[in-house]
């Protein structure tokens, strides 16, 4: 059912008595949005599970943090209504919003936030914000129920942004253990039903502290994939990160809109540095030279993306373009492999998650690497298999899109899944964190990007544009995605 146009309203009133089921369906359409995602969450707790799909469903809908990241990348107050900081920006004082309650009726207070942050600091927390945010918190004070004071080890110009990301959402201690399947938050929606393998339904929370959202419910579907028929039959209202080759065709169809925006995603061929083959920088450089990344983007992403040369994206402040560090040059790749003493041909497995860019792009990479003597064995995996295998360090190469913004700290963690272990990089990151001025931090931020590029820590492939197909009349859908979240409270039907 398409949104009703003004000229149709009178007809609807006349027909309502005789077509009540149709009228109820029309009302349901105006109260609901159906969203298709390519992957199903493996957990609904983004504070302990890393997959981006987890946050896409719950962030800003069920679960909230102290701040909120807008689609332009700016932050605004959310559970914290105001804050101030010391001159050296190492002490931050937050005033929590009064009267906030969780879906189960428990009150939000400073002790609850403190408990969440201490939980995230635990070595086994699984929180992907631990190195960037929580390890930087030296102490937490709660002078009263509505005041939280963070003492940082070093100043962080991105602190407010990090506090608005999904890994910093606030859970209640009494329900946190069940958050993976039954999250209880402070957001404008609550979990109604999760039909595993098919959909998750969220319903508006009557006791929400903020403005009442326009939509009564949002339904996230996982098996629709890129099924264009789901759009044609009006079963789906929004396809996120749409990758069908029919994307451009929707531009000429008045029933749909195509939104193309920027993202924080870094698509990369991740290398397992624990393997001797990839411990030689010449081999890593050779791989980047061997792959035609422009061709990859043209085919696997239908041109919706740009080549990157380090673990940063053009929409991040301080970004420098390094895509040309190791340009496409198969002959140079062969020279580097010979100089490294690699006995060709060599066989290397490539693990592929079940995403369209990997399914289409994996064979392209295999073809390019074959030209320089590297025979790639493609290993298609389900998402649970990828999380249980490559993400736990059991792989040689894998093609994956890191969508978390400002996550360059992962290269300072030798125990992270690709095992990059560089004392010079860790020293550079420490100098950046302890820089005494904003200007020095800016210069060192550029040095961080150059270091990762020069050391070919991974093969950076692309920063993908986000193509989203929505039904005409649906408003408030994000175009740009500085963080991957679908904010239902901003959506409404015309």
Automatic annotation (TrEMBL):
<protein>
    <submittedName>
        <fullName>ABC transporter substrate-binding protein</fullName>
    </submittedName>
</protein>
<dbReference type="InterPro" id="IPR039424">
    <property type="entry name" value="SBP_5"/>
</dbReference>
<keyword id="KW-0732">Signal</keyword>
<dbReference type="InterPro" id="IPR000914">
    <property type="entry name" value="SBP_5_dom"/>
</dbReference>
<feature type="domain" description="Solute-binding protein family 5">
    <location>
        <begin position="76"/>
        <end position="402"/>
    </location>
</feature>
<dbReference type="InterPro" id="IPR030678">
    <property type="entry name" value="Peptide/Ni-bd"/>
</dbReference>
<dbReference type="Pfam" id="PF00496">
    <property type="entry name" value="SBP_bac_5"/>
</dbReference>
<comment type="similarity">
    <text>Belongs to the bacterial solute-binding protein 5 family.</text>
</comment>
